[in-house]
Amino acid sequence: MKKRLVFWIAVSLFIAGAVSLLASNHPDGYEKAGEQLGFIDRATTYLHSPLPDYAIPGVHSWLSTSLSGILGVAITFVLFLLLGKMAGKRR
Amino acid sequence: MHIPDGILSPAILAAGAAVSVVVLAKSVQESKRNLEQTAVPIMGVMAAFIFAAQMVNFPLLGAAASGHLIGGALAAYLFGFWPTTLIMTTVVTIQAVVFQDGGISVLGVNILNMAILAPLAATVVYKLLQKTKVPVSVMIFIAGWVSVVVTAGFAALQLGASQVVSYQLALQTLILWHAIIGIGEGVITVAVVPFARRSSFFLGGREERLR
């Protein structure tokens, strides 16, 4: 099972670190509807995140998105392990 | 489908957060009873995979718009509804806190939409279709599509209830775009499940029960 988990993490890192560079920059369905209906102008931000819009502030190259994606995969996996450990059955 | 700050009314934000808290409390209760520790790393890699896949916006051909996977139908097929809410909540929360994708004041509503309603809609489709003769891949495609369209429908109702736009316009516009995006959700979900199956990513005989 361990090998399979490593495989899935590797695939996830590849998608978030490389395939993500090919992602479309067009607005998503919600934003697009918001443009058409005029409500997206109300959008604002109450919390300034460390990596806004999957980019490292100040870094202007593909590395910015790529590293953000890799970090995101790592954070998601680790956080879920902690959460799962707490929420799951006691051994 | 990640709603930013500043759009929905405070009452809707509070209502969404309250519903999410109640459902997630129940999810944790379910996990304490049923979730084996050996399953946690498997669900963890699926959370990481869904995070990664959500980064890849696919263009909607012929329109200046894009869509991306939610992943609720995928996780619900593999793990069932309750564990999926924990996986999706982890993803949606990290997106809001670390990446400013989805407003922090809307976190409760975004969790309700993507971590609860999307997998719930998919789970209902699985329950309805598992006893029919519909091929598994068709069932999974339908569940993926329905999960996106239902979620868009609720997002539209939240806009209407916040008096941002009329219910009718919100429903028409959001459902139209997400009826297209849902095709992507269905296709990706159908494509990924066989790989998860090969890795035995099912919780204790779930797939047999589903058939």
Describe this structure in words.
- Chain A: This is PDGLE domain-containing protein.
- Chain A: InterPro entries: PDGLE_dom (IPR025937).
- The complex is a heterodimer of chains A (91) and B (211).
- The radius of gyration of chain A is 17 Å and the shape is extended.
- The model of chain A has no long low-confidence stretch (mean pLDDT 95).
- Chain A has a domain at 1-22 and 59-91.
- Chain A is mostly helical and 91 residues long.
- In chain A, 56% of the residues lie in helices and 0% in strands.
- Chain A has helices at 2-17, 29-37, 62-87.
- By secondary structure, chain B is mainly alpha-helical.
- Chain B has one domain: Orthogonal Bundle (Arp2/3 complex 21 kDa subunit ARPC3), CATH 1.10.1760.
- Chain B is 73% helix and 2% strand.
- Chain B has helices spanning 10-34, 40-55, 72-79, 81-99, 107-129, 136-161, 167-198, 206-210, and strands at 58-59, 66-67.
- A two-stranded antiparallel sheet of chain B has the order 1-2.
- Chains A and B meet through helix 1, helix 2 and helix 3 of A and helix 1, helix 2, strand 1, strand 2 and helix 4 of B.
Summarize the structure.
The complex is a heterodimer of chains A (91) and B (211). Chain A is an all-alpha fold and 91 residues long. Helices cover 56% and strands 0% of the residues of chain A.
Please indicate the percent range of residues of chain B in DSSP E strands (runs of 2 or more): under 5%
Binned, the helix content of chain A reads 55-70%
Low-pLDDT stretches of chain B:
none
CATH architecture of chain B: Orthogonal Bundle
Largest interface: A-B, 63 and 72 residues
Output the number of helix runs of chain B: 8
**Which term fits the overall shape of chain A?**
extended
Main β-sheet description of chain A: none
Strand fraction of chain A equals under 5%
Subcellular location (chain A): Cell membrane
Organism (chain A): Neobacillus vireti LMG 21834
Domain PDGLE (chain A): 3-87
InterPro entries (chain A): PDGLE_dom (IPR025937)
